[in-house]
Each structure stands twice: as structure tokens, then as C-alpha cells.
């Protein structure tokens, strides 16, 4: 019989971002106090599971989210650039509430093709790199569980691909809250289920800046 392997995709916790910047891949954005509590809460919730490896995007907010879980399990964090936030040509700009970026005339030139999307890394490219790192992590943890800390859009894109749903979407409809877990269960190399949970859901302050 093939062995069951579980891959948890953990979105990072809340970031300290008082200016509402779409920070994307920019360095220097760390977890807020609430974000640190989210990371601790997730570590307590899943720290007793059969997790044998912890991977993380190299960005600070992801590494800081991974740290409490890795410490609890006595594991080193493996940085993997394939888990990084989606590339975005608008990073560094003030996002504003809702879809304010889309309503700003200075940004219109970026929005000629929302199906790609034209303002950043393509959905298929995100799916390819996420599928690659998930396959590697699954193979290394065969018969056990592993946690990969990443960002909202990469996690959502690979979930949509796994569920054979279209990749283009309304960002407001993503089911991928701060510090949430999107869980892929494999029977051998075959994906048998996709689950979702929010161990730190009671701490979520609500909608966050896009590109987070």
C-alpha cells in the first residue's frame, strides 16, 4: 500500500504595516505583535502532529511565522525561494482600502490583462513553482507530514490548480486567511484531498493589504 503524506501550506501571520504598503517581495516587513501570537497559536495547534520538516519562503514574515513551530518540533527551517510571494509590479505603492489600486489612473497601464495577470507574475508560473516545491517536500516527508510557509496568492493559486478550477479570480474571494492552513493529503503521489483550517482565526483582524 502507498503511504499517506500530508503537506500543510501555512500562510504567514499579520505584518506590521501601518502605512498600508503593498509590500510584495520587499524586505524589512516583519510580523506585528498579533502576527507573532498567530504564529505561536499555530505552533501549539499542530506541534503535536507527525511533522518532520518545516520549509519557508525567505521573506522575513514567513520565516518569523515558521520559527515557533520549528522550535517546538526541534527542526531547522529550510528556506526555499519557490515559496516566495508572487512578483508584483505595484509593490511599494500605498494599497488603500478594497481595490483602490485598480481605481488609480496611474496604475491603469498595468491592468490590460487580468487573466494573466498583467501586473505581476503569471498564475501558471506561480503554480509551476509551488507544485515543484510541494512535490519535493512530499517526497522527502513520505509517510509523514510537512509544513511549507508561504503567502496568500501562491497558496491560493496552487489550491485552485489542484482543484481544477480556473486560476484567474477575484482576490477578495480567496479562502486563505492570515496564519491559515491549506492541507494537501497524498496517497503515494496522488492527491486525495484538500483541506482548510484557521487555527489562529480568532486573532485575524480582517482584510489585509493585497500582496501579503
From TrEMBL:
CDD domains xrefs: HP_PGM_like
Its GO CC terms are:
cytoplasm
This chain's protein is named Histidine phosphatase family protein
Entry's transmembrane regions: none
Q: Which InterPro entries match?
A: His_Pase_superF_clade-1, His_PPase_superfam, PGM_Phosphatase
Which GO terms fall under molecular function for this chain's record? phosphatase activity
**Superkingdom assignment:** Bacteria
A Pfam family for this UniProt protein?
Answer: His_Phos_1
Amino acid at each position: 500500500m502507498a503511504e499517506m503524506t500530508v503537506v500543510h501550506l501555512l500562510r504567514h501571520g499579520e505584518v506590521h504595516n501601518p502605512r498600508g504598503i503593498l509590500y510584495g517581495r520587499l524586505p524589512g516587513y516583519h510580523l506585528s505583535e498579533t502576527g507573532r501570537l498567530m504564529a505561536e497559536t499555530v505552533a501549539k495547534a499542530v506541534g503535536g502532529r507527525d511533522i518532520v520538516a518545516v520549509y519557508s519562503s525567505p521573506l522575513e514574515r514567513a520565516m518569523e511565522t515558521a520559527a515557533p513551530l520549528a522550535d517546538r518540533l526541534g527542526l531547522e527551517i529550510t528556506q526555499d525561494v519557490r515559496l516566495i510571494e508572487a512578483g508584483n509590479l505595484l509593490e511599494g505603492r500605498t494599497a488603500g482600502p478594497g481595490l483602490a489600486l485598480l481605481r488609480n489612473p496611474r496604475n491603469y497601464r498595468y491592468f490590460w490583462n487580468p487573466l494573466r495577470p498583467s501586473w505581476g507574475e503569471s498564475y501558471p508560473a506561480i503554480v509551476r513553482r509551488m507544485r515543484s516545491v510541494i512535490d519535493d517536500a512530499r517526497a522527502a516527508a513520505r509517510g509523514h507530514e510537512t509544513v511549507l510557509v508561504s503567502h496568500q496568492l501562491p497558496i491560493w493559486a496552487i489550491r485552485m490548480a489542484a482543484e481544477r478550477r480556473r486560476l484567474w479570480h477575484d482576490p477578495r474571494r480567496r479562502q486563505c486567511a492570515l496564519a491559515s492552513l491549506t492541507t494537501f493529503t497524498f496517497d503515494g503521489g496522488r492527491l486525495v484531498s484538500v483541506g482548510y483550517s484557521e487555527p489562529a482565526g480568532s486573532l485575524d483582524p480582517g482584510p489585509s493589504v493585497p500582496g501579503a
